[in-house]
Amino acid sequence: MSQRDRRSSPDISFTATVQAQQMRWDEVPDVHVTFTGSPGFESVSESDRINLPDSVRAGETYRNVRVDYRLECTLPDQLDDARPDA
């Protein structure tokens, strides 16, 4: 079992919802998420999309769009405290 599995909740949690009647891109966006910091932290970044594909196409109009985004992180010092042998 990973250390993350032992924790009932993350130390940091960020959620956001974006909704739009329509969205359109002139160019395909270059989108990526990176995490930096101390070794040992564990993080999750994910989104649920309605009427919006993972990769959008330039020039296409997407209607009635919704994106639910979640970012969670467990900090290293908290992981050590959560260990049963600590």
Notes on the protein architecture:
Strands 1-3-2 form a three-stranded antiparallel beta sheet. The protein starts with a helix and ends with a helix. The longest helix is centred in the last third of the chain and has 7 residues, at 76-82. It is built from two helices and three strands. It has one domain. 13% of the residues lie in helices and 42% in strands. 1% of the residues are buried. The chain has helices at 3-6, 76-82, and strands at residues 12-24, 42-50, 61-74. With 86 residues, it is mostly beta strands.
How many strands, which pairing sense, and closed or not: the largest β-sheet?
3 strands, antiparallel
Helical segment count: 2
| Percent in strands | 35-45%
| Helix/sheet category | mainly beta
Question: Mean pLDDT score, rounded?
Answer: 81
| Strand adjacency order, main sheet | 1-3-2
Question: What are the salient characteristics of this protein?
Answer:
single chain, 86 residues, mainly beta, three-stranded antiparallel sheet, 2 helices, 13% helix, elongated
What is shown here, in short?
The protein is 13% helix and 42% strand.
Write the layout of secondary structure elements.
Blueprint: H1 3-6, E1 12-24, E2 42-50, E3 61-74, H2 76-82
Antiparallel strand pairs: 1-3, 2-3
